[in-house]
Amino acid sequence: MKLKYRKRALRYNLITYGMVIFFYVLWEIMMNTGNMSSLMKGMLVSLCYYSMLAVSLNLVVGISGELSLGHAGFMCIGAFTGAIFAMTIGAALPGWLELLIAIILGALVSAAFGFLIGIPVLRLRGDYLAIVTLAFGEIIKNVINVVYFGIDSRGPHISFKDSLSLGLEPDGVTIIKGAQGISRLPRNATFTLGIILLLISLFIVLNLINSRHGRAIMAIRDNRIAAESIGISASKYKMLAFVIASSIAGVAGVLYSHNLSTLQSTSANFGYNQSIMILVFVVLGGIGNIRNSVIAATILTILPEKLRFLDDYRMLIYAVVLIAMMLFNSAPSAIEFRARMAAKFARRKNSAEVDDER
């Protein structure tokens, strides 16, 4: 039974990796042959970091069973960590090395914030947890919005008033300019790098789910009292899932910041609506279904842009598609239909195998 479970999990993981690699190769061929529009080319990196955000949030919502509405806050932390490094120490490094170190720093800083926030937050449940994580995301965005940060020969300077209050020397550079954010960022992010980071994120999350730690996390989700009664530490495993998800969101933030020339915390990509949109990816893809989270994030990122020619009807059609996907994934009749089709396909496959043996 255990061997059968491992084979099924391995097959699921390989299909997921193969799906990502297939579309990467397909889109690369389309780009190199001139069959892809400039709009679609500009969206390829965003597809990667949105998919990473959906995968990481599904680890918290679907696998751990906790509702978090502050995921964009960890993305914001990673984005500004990577951007600050790129504008200071990283400016003297080759582009690939600067981006690599920025990714590592973004992951570590976001994980540290995830741990600090998780200590009080994961003691809460349900609506209270959602409210506190939502508040965290808004606090992070608004704090960075009023920060002025610069550096000169004497070291770093920070102020919450204005740029003049930094007292920089003539050779000093103001990096964060409050609501104006950070400008002249190096655009080192590429589609290939985004796919690599997405595959690494999928590898980490899928292997965690299929490990002993992942089974413990799901046991706590299903029945916390029963799990604790056999010695499973709920706080330990929930913290593990929360920190890993925060770290992946931070890496997605670094990828986001290196795909732009200007980074602002006032951007819609760090607000409440962004966290809700990531949650929509998770819900529509299926709570706990990692592969479908990537599919949902890809479809729902491309769809609004492809419907721009419809003007006022664009968001109406987008809403209809959301409802249709929700019904397909969650309606009892749709679930029964999918189960019947899967059983029918399995019977055909078994009969074909029997015929081959004969």
Secondary structure elements and their pairing?
Blueprint: H1 2-32, H2 38-63, H3 71-87, H4 95-121, H5 126-145, E1 148-152, E2 155-159, E3 173-177, E4 182-183, H6 191-209, H7 212-222, H8 224-229, H9 234-257, E5 262-263, H10 272-285, H11 290-306, H12 314-330, H13 332-357
Antiparallel strand pairs: 1-2, 1-3, 4-5
Largest sheet: 3 strands, antiparallel
How far is the N terminus from the C terminus? 27 Å
Largest sheet strand order: 2-1-3
* Global shape: globular
Mean pLDDT: 84
Report helical residue fraction: over 70%
Number of strands: 5
What is the CA-based Rg, rounded? 22 Å
Unreliable residue runs: none
Kindly describe this structure.
Helix content is 71%, strand content 5%. Helix 2 packs antiparallel against helix 11 and helix 3 (71-87) packs antiparallel against helix 4 (95-121). The chain is mainly alpha-helical and 358 residues long. The relative contact order is 0.16.
